[in-house]
Amino acid sequence: MTVMFLLVISMSIALITAESSVYFREQFEDGDAWKSRWVESTHKSDYGKFVLSAGTFYGDAEKDKGLQTSQDAHFYALSSRFKEFSNKHQPLVVQFTVKHEQSIDCGGGYIKLFPSDLKQEDMHGDSTYNIMFGPDICGPGTKKVHVIFHYKGKNHLINKDIRCKDDEHSHLYTLIVKPDNTYEVKIDNKKVESGSLEDDWDFLPPKKIKDPDARKPEDWDEREKIDDPDDKKPEDWEKPENIPDPDAKKPDDWDDEMDGEWEPPMVTNPEYKGEWKPKQIDNPVYKGKWVHPEIDNPEYTADPEIYKYNSIGVIGLDLWQVKSGTIFDNFLITNDPKLAEEVGNETWGATKVMDKKYLSIKTDQKEHAYYI
Ligand SMILES: *[C@@H]1O[C@H](CO)[C@@H](O)[C@H](O)[C@H]1NC(C)=O
């Protein structure tokens, strides 16, 4: 009793004292100061420029300012550093908004989380990252949310197809990775996908494999039905498929010398029965489909820490866009899913309503620019 009681008490204390940490937050609400927090890579000389903008329509002219891609057909490589942390034993929540107000044809809208040893000035497409997350659009064929995890030297893409938003509004993307090796993806604060890391990515080899020593016995009969050996083709079965039309008459004015020998046209034989096939009967020695027995895969070792990264220290926008104009805003990295939901409501949730209202005016009255 007492032990139980103490356990309950200590558990509640653990719950109460579990603090939420915000590792990174960026709202772009202090003018040009973001330039001191974000570093442009110089790995290539012609990366596209990000500019601070709320775009051509918005809910709030100040709050909706974010980083906007400003040059068509360019690569972008920008990143921001925060105090290094590990998500060991804690949830990891990454959240941000993406607004493709240019009505994007092809381009990335995702972020990458890097280990703290990333050289930001040299960040590029092949820099090793921990997680890549967010929307990616290219033509009608690709409209998906990437969730890629770096695990033991390899990038692993999710096995499921998560559709991203492809309209011109601002949308909130959230990834939650939990220490019990489960995950959740939310769009606009609504769950769109969830499950277990082990099931939805190919991090580990399969738990079971087909027994390499098992063979289907030679006499295993998998035929459910067989030809009836007692069924014989009737003797009068064979009839030609087409016969000369018995009703056809040689025309009166037919001239054998001029027209050649008269032949009646061919018609389908009403007595033709087609190809003969014996009746099918149940196979008396049918054994069912042979199932290859499975054994535990000797290559498989469970990993209770698939979710874990020892070092997370940089968030980056490393992407390609054909038609620029995408605005990234409201970046948040925390260990607290509830807090992220609240922040999502207060930022994206508060201004998107107005942003929608503006768009409906725009549609009704063509291009009259009514900013709210
Ligand atoms: C966020 O907003 C939704 C919709 O209004 C609401 O249902 C939800 O409880 C809010 N979440 C938090 C954490 O405030």
UniProtKB/TrEMBL annotation:
<feature type="binding site">
    <location>
        <position position="27"/>
    </location>
    <ligand>
        <name>Ca(2+)</name>
    </ligand>
</feature>
<keyword id="KW-0862">Zinc</keyword>
<keyword id="KW-0968">Cytoplasmic vesicle</keyword>
<feature type="region of interest" description="Disordered">
    <location>
        <begin position="196"/>
        <end position="261"/>
    </location>
</feature>
<keyword id="KW-0703">Sarcoplasmic reticulum</keyword>
<dbReference type="GO" id="GO:0060473">
    <property type="term" value="C:cortical granule"/>
</dbReference>
<keyword id="KW-0677">Repeat</keyword>
<feature type="binding site">
    <location>
        <position position="136"/>
    </location>
    <ligand>
        <name>an alpha-D-glucoside</name>
    </ligand>
</feature>
<feature type="binding site">
    <location>
        <position position="110"/>
    </location>
    <ligand>
        <name>an alpha-D-glucoside</name>
    </ligand>
</feature>
<feature type="binding site">
    <location>
        <position position="129"/>
    </location>
    <ligand>
        <name>an alpha-D-glucoside</name>
    </ligand>
</feature>
<protein>
    <recommendedName>
        <fullName>Calreticulin</fullName>
    </recommendedName>
</protein>
<dbReference type="GO" id="GO:0036503">
    <property type="term" value="P:ERAD pathway"/>
</dbReference>
<dbReference type="InterPro" id="IPR013320">
    <property type="entry name" value="ConA-like_dom_sf"/>
</dbReference>
<dbReference type="GO" id="GO:0005829">
    <property type="term" value="C:cytosol"/>
</dbReference>
<dbReference type="InterPro" id="IPR009033">
    <property type="entry name" value="Calreticulin/calnexin_P_dom_sf"/>
</dbReference>
<feature type="binding site">
    <location>
        <position position="112"/>
    </location>
    <ligand>
        <name>an alpha-D-glucoside</name>
    </ligand>
</feature>
<keyword id="KW-0272">Extracellular matrix</keyword>
<dbReference type="InterPro" id="IPR018124">
    <property type="entry name" value="Calret/calnex_CS"/>
</dbReference>
<comment type="similarity">
    <text>Belongs to the calreticulin family.</text>
</comment>
<feature type="signal peptide">
    <location>
        <begin position="1"/>
        <end position="18"/>
    </location>
</feature>
<keyword id="KW-0007">Acetylation</keyword>
<dbReference type="Pfam" id="PF00262">
    <property type="entry name" value="Calreticulin"/>
</dbReference>
<dbReference type="GO" id="GO:0030246">
    <property type="term" value="F:carbohydrate binding"/>
</dbReference>
<comment type="subunit">
    <text>Monomer.</text>
</comment>
<feature type="compositionally biased region" description="Basic and acidic residues">
    <location>
        <begin position="208"/>
        <end position="252"/>
    </location>
</feature>
<keyword id="KW-0732">Signal</keyword>
<keyword id="KW-0963">Cytoplasm</keyword>
<dbReference type="GO" id="GO:0006457">
    <property type="term" value="P:protein folding"/>
</dbReference>
<keyword id="KW-0143">Chaperone</keyword>
<feature type="binding site">
    <location>
        <position position="329"/>
    </location>
    <ligand>
        <name>Ca(2+)</name>
    </ligand>
</feature>
<dbReference type="InterPro" id="IPR001580">
    <property type="entry name" value="Calret/calnex"/>
</dbReference>
<feature type="disulfide bond">
    <location>
        <begin position="106"/>
        <end position="138"/>
    </location>
</feature>
<dbReference type="GO" id="GO:0009986">
    <property type="term" value="C:cell surface"/>
</dbReference>
<dbReference type="GO" id="GO:0051082">
    <property type="term" value="F:unfolded protein binding"/>
</dbReference>
<keyword id="KW-0256">Endoplasmic reticulum</keyword>
<keyword id="KW-1015">Disulfide bond</keyword>
<dbReference type="GO" id="GO:0005509">
    <property type="term" value="F:calcium ion binding"/>
</dbReference>
<dbReference type="GO" id="GO:0005789">
    <property type="term" value="C:endoplasmic reticulum membrane"/>
</dbReference>
<dbReference type="InterPro" id="IPR009169">
    <property type="entry name" value="Calreticulin"/>
</dbReference>
<keyword id="KW-0106">Calcium</keyword>
<feature type="binding site">
    <location>
        <position position="63"/>
    </location>
    <ligand>
        <name>Ca(2+)</name>
    </ligand>
</feature>
<dbReference type="GO" id="GO:0033018">
    <property type="term" value="C:sarcoplasmic reticulum lumen"/>
</dbReference>
